[in-house]
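Batch manifest line 347
LIGAND: iron/sulfur cluster
JOB: complex structure
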Amino acid sequence: MTGIRDIIDRCREKALRCEDLTRDEFVALLSIDPDSPDCDYLGETARSVKEHYSGNVTRLGTSIGLDLRPCRMSCDFCSLGEKVGLITKEYEISDDTAVQLITDLRKRGFYQFTLRTTEFYPIERLVSLAKRIRSELGYGFALSGNTGELTPEKARMLKDAGINAVYHAVRLREGIDTPLSVETRSTTIRNAKDAGLRVSSGIDPIGVDHTPEEIADLFLLYYKLNVDGMCIMRRINVPGTKYEGMPEVSDRRLAQIVAVARLACGNRWTIAIHPAVKQGLLWGCDHISVETGANPRDNNIDMLRWSLFDHDTALRMMEDAGCVFGDNPFEMREDERTQHIKDHLLA
Ligand code: SF4
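JOB STATUS: finished
ARTIFACT:
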Protein backbone atom coordinates (compact mmCIF):
# COMPACT_ATOMS: atom_id res chain seq x y z
CA MET A 1 0.00 0.00 0.00
CA THR A 2 1.25 3.48 -0.87
CA GLY A 3 1.74 5.68 2.20
CA ILE A 4 1.32 9.44 2.27
CA ARG A 5 5.09 10.02 2.37
CA ASP A 6 5.46 7.98 -0.83
CA ILE A 7 2.83 10.21 -2.44
CA ILE A 8 4.67 13.34 -1.25
CA ASP A 9 7.94 11.97 -2.68
CA ARG A 10 6.23 11.19 -5.98
CA CYS A 11 4.75 14.71 -6.12
CA ARG A 12 8.22 16.16 -5.44
CA GLU A 13 9.58 14.29 -8.46
CA LYS A 14 6.71 15.69 -10.53
CA ALA A 15 7.43 19.22 -9.23
CA LEU A 16 11.05 18.87 -10.34
CA ARG A 17 9.73 18.07 -13.83
CA CYS A 18 7.01 20.79 -13.61
CA GLU A 19 4.39 18.11 -14.19
CA ASP A 20 0.72 18.44 -13.18
CA LEU A 21 -0.56 16.58 -10.11
CA THR A 22 -3.67 14.44 -10.42
CA ARG A 23 -6.88 15.17 -8.53
CA ASP A 24 -6.23 12.14 -6.29
CA GLU A 25 -2.77 13.46 -5.45
CA PHE A 26 -4.15 16.90 -4.59
CA VAL A 27 -6.83 15.40 -2.38
CA ALA A 28 -4.30 13.16 -0.60
CA LEU A 29 -1.96 16.09 0.17
CA LEU A 30 -4.79 18.40 1.21
CA SER A 31 -6.24 15.71 3.50
CA ILE A 32 -3.11 15.48 5.68
CA ASP A 33 -3.70 16.68 9.24
CA PRO A 34 -2.01 20.12 9.34
CA ASP A 35 -0.69 19.43 12.86
CA SER A 36 0.88 16.07 12.03
CA PRO A 37 4.51 15.06 11.37
CA ASP A 38 3.39 14.12 7.85
CA CYS A 39 2.49 17.77 7.26
CA ASP A 40 5.97 18.79 8.44
CA TYR A 41 7.34 16.33 5.88
CA LEU A 42 5.11 17.86 3.18
CA GLY A 43 6.22 21.39 4.08
CA GLU A 44 9.92 20.52 4.21
CA THR A 45 9.62 18.74 0.87
CA ALA A 46 7.98 21.80 -0.68
CA ARG A 47 10.72 24.01 0.72
CA SER A 48 13.32 21.76 -0.88
CA VAL A 49 11.59 22.25 -4.25
CA LYS A 50 11.65 26.02 -3.81
CA GLU A 51 15.34 25.86 -2.88
CA HIS A 52 16.03 23.74 -5.94
CA TYR A 53 14.57 26.34 -8.25
CA SER A 54 15.39 29.66 -6.64
CA GLY A 55 17.57 29.25 -3.58
CA ASN A 56 15.49 30.96 -0.96
CA VAL A 57 14.70 34.07 -2.96
CA THR A 58 11.43 35.62 -1.84
CA ARG A 59 9.74 38.79 -3.05
CA LEU A 60 7.92 41.49 -1.16
CA GLY A 61 5.09 43.33 -2.88
CA THR A 62 2.96 46.27 -1.87
CA SER A 63 -0.74 46.39 -2.53
CA ILE A 64 -2.17 49.92 -2.53
CA GLY A 65 -5.92 50.24 -2.03
CA LEU A 66 -7.08 53.13 -4.20
CA ASP A 67 -10.67 53.19 -2.97
CA LEU A 68 -13.07 51.75 -0.48
CA ARG A 69 -16.84 51.82 -1.02
CA PRO A 70 -19.84 49.57 -0.44
CA CYS A 71 -20.03 46.95 -3.20
CA ARG A 72 -23.37 45.86 -4.63
CA MET A 73 -22.05 42.35 -5.33
CA SER A 74 -22.26 41.60 -1.59
CA CYS A 75 -20.23 38.40 -1.65
CA ASP A 76 -20.97 36.35 1.47
CA PHE A 77 -17.45 36.67 2.92
CA CYS A 78 -16.66 40.30 2.12
CA SER A 79 -16.72 43.23 4.51
CA LEU A 80 -17.34 45.67 1.65
CA GLY A 81 -20.68 44.11 0.65
CA GLU A 82 -23.59 46.57 0.67
CA LYS A 83 -25.75 44.07 2.52
CA VAL A 84 -23.26 43.79 5.39
CA GLY A 85 -23.45 47.53 5.93
CA LEU A 86 -20.01 47.93 7.51
CA ILE A 87 -18.86 50.50 4.95
CA THR A 88 -21.25 53.41 4.74
CA LYS A 89 -19.04 56.10 3.22
CA GLU A 90 -16.69 56.17 0.26
CA TYR A 91 -12.96 56.69 0.62
CA GLU A 92 -10.33 57.22 -2.04
CA ILE A 93 -6.68 58.11 -1.93
CA SER A 94 -5.56 60.77 -4.35
CA ASP A 95 -3.28 60.07 -7.31
CA ASP A 96 -0.71 62.33 -5.64
CA THR A 97 -0.72 60.13 -2.54
CA ALA A 98 -0.37 56.94 -4.58
CA VAL A 99 2.55 58.39 -6.53
CA GLN A 100 4.17 59.67 -3.34
CA LEU A 101 3.85 56.28 -1.67
CA ILE A 102 5.43 54.45 -4.61
CA THR A 103 8.17 57.08 -4.85
CA ASP A 104 8.98 56.67 -1.18
CA LEU A 105 9.07 52.88 -1.32
CA ARG A 106 11.10 52.90 -4.54
CA LYS A 107 13.77 54.94 -2.74
CA ARG A 108 13.85 52.24 -0.09
CA GLY A 109 14.44 49.55 -2.68
CA PHE A 110 11.01 48.04 -3.29
CA TYR A 111 10.16 46.91 -6.82
CA GLN A 112 6.62 45.58 -6.98
CA PHE A 113 3.35 47.49 -6.57
CA THR A 114 -0.26 46.45 -7.04
CA LEU A 115 -2.98 49.05 -7.56
CA ARG A 116 -6.04 47.55 -5.86
CA THR A 117 -9.56 48.82 -6.44
CA THR A 118 -13.10 47.79 -5.65
CA GLU A 119 -15.07 45.92 -8.32
CA PHE A 120 -16.51 48.91 -10.21
CA TYR A 121 -13.66 51.43 -10.05
CA PRO A 122 -13.54 53.23 -13.43
CA ILE A 123 -10.90 51.65 -15.63
CA GLU A 124 -10.09 55.09 -17.11
CA ARG A 125 -8.98 56.33 -13.66
CA LEU A 126 -6.77 53.30 -13.14
CA VAL A 127 -5.27 53.74 -16.60
CA SER A 128 -4.63 57.43 -16.00
CA LEU A 129 -2.86 56.73 -12.69
CA ALA A 130 -0.76 53.93 -14.20
CA LYS A 131 0.32 56.20 -17.06
CA ARG A 132 1.28 58.94 -14.61
CA ILE A 133 3.29 56.48 -12.47
CA ARG A 134 5.16 55.20 -15.51
CA SER A 135 5.79 58.66 -16.89
CA GLU A 136 7.11 60.01 -13.57
CA LEU A 137 8.82 56.93 -12.14
CA GLY A 138 9.79 54.93 -15.20
CA TYR A 139 9.67 51.22 -15.90
CA GLY A 140 12.25 49.80 -13.48
CA PHE A 141 9.67 48.06 -11.30
CA ALA A 142 6.62 45.80 -11.57
CA LEU A 143 3.18 47.41 -11.59
CA SER A 144 0.07 45.23 -11.21
CA GLY A 145 -3.65 45.82 -11.14
CA ASN A 146 -6.24 44.16 -8.93
CA THR A 147 -9.57 45.40 -10.22
CA GLY A 148 -12.91 44.24 -11.62
CA GLU A 149 -13.74 42.08 -14.61
CA LEU A 150 -11.83 42.76 -17.83
CA THR A 151 -13.06 42.69 -21.41
CA PRO A 152 -10.33 42.22 -24.05
CA GLU A 153 -10.39 46.02 -24.58
CA LYS A 154 -10.00 46.83 -20.87
CA ALA A 155 -7.18 44.32 -20.50
CA ARG A 156 -5.39 45.92 -23.44
CA MET A 157 -5.91 49.40 -21.90
CA LEU A 158 -4.16 48.26 -18.72
CA LYS A 159 -1.30 46.73 -20.66
CA ASP A 160 -0.88 49.86 -22.81
CA ALA A 161 -0.86 52.06 -19.69
CA GLY A 162 2.21 50.25 -18.36
CA ILE A 163 0.59 47.68 -16.08
CA ASN A 164 2.35 44.36 -16.54
CA ALA A 165 0.25 41.99 -14.42
CA VAL A 166 -3.13 41.52 -12.76
CA TYR A 167 -4.38 39.62 -9.74
CA HIS A 168 -7.61 37.85 -10.62
CA ALA A 169 -9.01 34.80 -8.86
CA VAL A 170 -11.87 32.41 -9.31
CA ARG A 171 -13.12 32.38 -5.74
CA LEU A 172 -13.75 29.26 -3.75
CA ARG A 173 -17.51 28.63 -4.05
CA GLU A 174 -17.76 31.14 -6.87
CA GLY A 175 -21.43 31.40 -7.82
CA ILE A 176 -22.51 30.16 -4.36
CA ASP A 177 -20.87 32.69 -2.04
CA THR A 178 -20.67 35.26 -4.85
CA PRO A 179 -23.06 36.50 -7.56
CA LEU A 180 -20.35 36.03 -10.22
CA SER A 181 -19.76 32.80 -12.12
CA VAL A 182 -16.65 30.67 -12.60
CA GLU A 183 -16.96 31.38 -16.33
CA THR A 184 -17.04 35.17 -15.84
CA ARG A 185 -13.88 35.07 -13.74
CA SER A 186 -12.18 32.64 -16.12
CA THR A 187 -13.00 34.87 -19.09
CA THR A 188 -11.29 37.82 -17.41
CA ILE A 189 -8.22 35.67 -16.78
CA ARG A 190 -8.14 34.59 -20.44
CA ASN A 191 -8.61 38.19 -21.63
CA ALA A 192 -5.74 39.37 -19.41
CA LYS A 193 -3.44 36.63 -20.67
CA ASP A 194 -4.38 37.36 -24.29
CA ALA A 195 -3.46 41.03 -23.73
CA GLY A 196 0.00 39.98 -22.58
CA LEU A 197 -0.59 40.55 -18.87
CA ARG A 198 0.88 38.19 -16.31
CA VAL A 199 -1.95 36.72 -14.19
CA SER A 200 -1.73 35.83 -10.53
CA SER A 201 -4.70 33.89 -9.21
CA GLY A 202 -5.53 32.48 -5.84
CA ILE A 203 -7.00 29.83 -3.62
CA ASP A 204 -9.10 32.47 -2.00
CA PRO A 205 -10.72 32.92 0.51
CA ILE A 206 -9.96 29.70 2.44
CA GLY A 207 -12.12 28.72 5.40
CA VAL A 208 -12.16 25.68 7.68
CA ASP A 209 -15.29 24.53 5.84
CA HIS A 210 -13.58 24.13 2.44
CA THR A 211 -12.96 20.48 1.60
CA PRO A 212 -9.80 19.04 0.02
CA GLU A 213 -11.90 18.21 -3.06
CA GLU A 214 -13.08 21.81 -3.52
CA ILE A 215 -9.55 23.15 -3.21
CA ALA A 216 -8.20 20.44 -5.53
CA ASP A 217 -10.76 21.35 -8.22
CA LEU A 218 -9.73 25.01 -8.11
CA PHE A 219 -6.06 24.06 -8.54
CA LEU A 220 -7.03 21.90 -11.52
CA LEU A 221 -8.94 24.81 -13.10
CA TYR A 222 -5.85 27.01 -12.76
CA TYR A 223 -3.80 24.43 -14.65
CA LYS A 224 -6.27 24.81 -17.52
CA LEU A 225 -6.17 28.62 -17.36
CA ASN A 226 -2.37 28.54 -17.41
CA VAL A 227 -1.99 31.24 -14.73
CA ASP A 228 1.40 32.56 -13.66
CA GLY A 229 1.02 33.02 -9.92
CA MET A 230 -0.98 31.73 -6.97
CA CYS A 231 -1.95 33.44 -3.73
CA ILE A 232 -3.01 31.24 -0.82
CA MET A 233 -5.39 33.44 1.11
CA ARG A 234 -7.14 33.00 4.44
CA ARG A 235 -10.78 34.01 4.79
CA ILE A 236 -11.17 36.54 7.58
CA ASN A 237 -14.57 35.87 9.11
CA VAL A 238 -15.68 39.46 9.49
CA PRO A 239 -18.54 40.19 11.92
CA GLY A 240 -21.72 40.85 9.98
CA THR A 241 -20.84 38.43 7.16
CA LYS A 242 -22.21 34.92 6.72
CA TYR A 243 -19.09 33.44 8.29
CA GLU A 244 -19.07 35.55 11.45
CA GLY A 245 -18.05 33.47 14.46
CA MET A 246 -16.58 30.57 12.46
CA PRO A 247 -12.95 29.75 13.35
CA GLU A 248 -10.36 30.71 10.75
CA VAL A 249 -7.85 28.33 9.16
CA SER A 250 -4.65 28.02 11.19
CA ASP A 251 -1.24 29.22 10.03
CA ARG A 252 -0.23 25.59 9.53
CA ARG A 253 -3.27 24.80 7.36
CA LEU A 254 -2.61 27.89 5.25
CA ALA A 255 1.07 26.94 4.94
CA GLN A 256 0.10 23.36 4.05
CA ILE A 257 -1.85 24.68 1.06
CA VAL A 258 1.22 26.75 0.11
CA ALA A 259 3.25 23.54 0.19
CA VAL A 260 0.71 21.76 -2.00
CA ALA A 261 0.81 24.68 -4.46
CA ARG A 262 4.62 24.44 -4.60
CA LEU A 263 4.49 20.71 -5.40
CA ALA A 264 1.71 21.41 -7.91
CA CYS A 265 3.70 23.92 -9.92
CA GLY A 266 7.42 23.32 -9.47
CA ASN A 267 8.52 26.76 -10.59
CA ARG A 268 5.66 27.59 -12.96
CA TRP A 269 3.90 29.90 -10.45
CA THR A 270 5.04 32.45 -7.97
CA ILE A 271 3.35 31.51 -4.72
CA ALA A 272 2.16 34.09 -2.24
CA ILE A 273 0.56 33.71 1.17
CA HIS A 274 -1.88 36.19 2.66
CA PRO A 275 -1.82 37.24 5.38
CA ALA A 276 1.93 36.75 5.53
CA VAL A 277 2.84 34.08 8.09
CA LYS A 278 6.29 32.71 8.70
CA GLN A 279 5.19 29.09 8.28
CA GLY A 280 4.27 29.82 4.67
CA LEU A 281 7.76 31.18 4.02
CA LEU A 282 9.21 28.06 5.62
CA TRP A 283 7.09 25.80 3.42
CA GLY A 284 7.66 27.10 -0.07
CA CYS A 285 6.05 30.46 -0.77
CA ASP A 286 8.16 33.03 -2.58
CA HIS A 287 6.10 36.18 -2.32
CA ILE A 288 4.44 38.12 0.47
CA SER A 289 2.58 41.37 0.20
CA VAL A 290 2.00 44.33 2.47
CA GLU A 291 -1.37 46.03 2.21
CA THR A 292 -1.83 49.73 2.39
CA GLY A 293 -4.13 52.38 1.00
CA ALA A 294 -7.68 53.58 1.42
CA ASN A 295 -8.83 52.73 4.87
CA PRO A 296 -11.64 54.36 6.84
CA ARG A 297 -9.46 54.52 9.95
CA ASP A 298 -6.46 56.20 8.39
CA ASN A 299 -5.75 59.55 6.93
CA ASN A 300 -3.09 59.54 4.24
CA ILE A 301 -0.20 60.58 6.47
CA ASP A 302 -0.85 57.86 9.01
CA MET A 303 -1.27 55.38 6.17
CA LEU A 304 2.23 56.07 4.87
CA ARG A 305 3.79 55.66 8.30
CA TRP A 306 1.88 52.46 8.90
CA SER A 307 2.91 50.99 5.58
CA LEU A 308 6.63 51.62 6.16
CA PHE A 309 6.44 49.94 9.55
CA ASP A 310 4.74 46.98 7.98
CA HIS A 311 7.36 46.62 5.27
CA ASP A 312 10.05 46.39 7.93
CA THR A 313 8.06 43.76 9.81
CA ALA A 314 7.61 41.73 6.63
CA LEU A 315 11.30 41.94 5.80
CA ARG A 316 12.29 40.73 9.24
CA MET A 317 9.84 37.83 8.93
CA MET A 318 11.55 36.89 5.66
CA GLU A 319 14.95 37.03 7.32
CA ASP A 320 13.72 34.88 10.24
CA ALA A 321 12.52 32.26 7.76
CA GLY A 322 15.93 32.16 6.09
CA CYS A 323 14.70 33.79 2.89
CA VAL A 324 16.72 36.04 0.63
CA PHE A 325 15.12 39.33 -0.38
CA GLY A 326 14.65 39.02 -4.11
CA ASP A 327 12.36 41.79 -5.16
CA ASN A 328 14.80 43.00 -7.75
CA PRO A 329 14.39 42.86 -11.50
CA PHE A 330 18.08 43.56 -12.01
CA GLU A 331 19.15 40.11 -10.81
CA MET A 332 21.52 41.03 -7.99
CA ARG A 333 23.82 38.30 -6.76
CA GLU A 334 22.98 36.86 -3.34
CA ASP A 335 25.75 38.81 -1.56
CA GLU A 336 24.60 42.02 -3.28
CA ARG A 337 21.03 41.40 -2.21
CA THR A 338 22.12 40.84 1.37
CA GLN A 339 24.03 44.11 1.35
CA HIS A 340 21.11 45.87 -0.32
CA ILE A 341 18.67 44.79 2.35
CA LYS A 342 21.05 45.96 5.10
CA ASP A 343 21.85 49.31 3.48
CA HIS A 344 18.45 50.35 2.21
CA LEU A 345 15.67 48.35 3.73
CA LEU A 346 16.59 47.73 7.35
CA ALA A 347 18.71 50.84 7.84
S1 SF4 B 1 -17.05 41.72 -5.70
FE1 SF4 B 1 -15.16 41.97 -4.47
S2 SF4 B 1 -15.48 43.89 -3.34
FE2 SF4 B 1 -17.50 43.28 -4.12
S3 SF4 B 1 -18.43 42.14 -2.41
FE3 SF4 B 1 -17.42 40.64 -3.77
S4 SF4 B 1 -15.33 40.34 -2.90
FE4 SF4 B 1 -16.23 42.24 -2.01
